[in-house]
Amino acid sequence: MLDERKTAILRAVVQEYIATGQPVGSAHIAQMAGVSVSSATVRNDMSMLEQEGYLVQPHTSAGRIPTDKGYRFFVDTLVTTAQAERVTSEQVGSFFHHSTGRVEELLQKTSGLLTNMTNYAALVVGPAADVATVRSVQIVRLSLHMGTVVVVLSSGVVQSEAIDLDDQLSDAQVAAASAHLNAATYGHVFNQVHLAPSGDAKVDALCSSALSLLVPHQSDANVIVGGAAAMAQAFDAVDVVRSVLQTLEQQYVVVSLVRDVLDRGLSVAIGSEHGVEPLAACSVVVAQVMADGEKLGTVGVLGPTRMNYPQALATVEAVSTQLGRRLADGNYGAVSNG
Question: Is the pTM of this model over 0.85?
Fold first, then answer.
């Protein structure tokens, strides 16, 4: 554990490097508020911090920059100001108060909000059917041989799938199947549904067919990655920019990254901590979106390891809270996944 003086010096180096992107020298740190020692003492402590892996000197006679370990210490000892959190919360709250539209539109707008407030890539993983419960299911006959199955989930997402109908099915049997399926699925996720016999073999067959169309989509997630242009400006090396942007285009990588970070109980993964090699120069800040006790998705930002962690953490936390409240209120339109 670092003593109070080294902690103050390390925090000052991290804050200065985040602000400027330039290696930080001891003389500059000695002049900063909260560091009341000589530049020689600062230089000695910075050397020790380098030996302990918190700082690195990129060039001879240059100042020092934080390592992933240095950023981790900074994040773990971070104390945000109440005023900064209040301002962020008010700005995010105002956005959601005035934001209208369907769930898909709301998630797109949320992505834009995250990027605008942080200047980093926004990661929005919308609700998947395997964590959202069924609000209603309806089988609608469109013609003698064709129908559609419409499902409304607790997340507000609406799925619709075309279904073939036996021309021997009466309208009454279609209606009975719709009612039976609705009763069996209400309040459950797809993989928890158990279809009991209805007493009519044709009704049961239609219910089974309808459910089989919906189950394959239970792990579908609406993934939105915004702010690619902002990320392109965050790095000097062209090869790093190319690697980061190519990786962000792969939705399964983004979903796996977010889930892995959360599964490990983290809200911040710095550099190599997240294990995605093409994003080793990046950090990710994430938070789950909760509504009425259900996990309905994740929001986060991805930026260079030299990111403004206090701002990113405050923004992601405020957005996840407000988005969860909005989804819980149910004050939105529907979006089709079918």
Answer: no
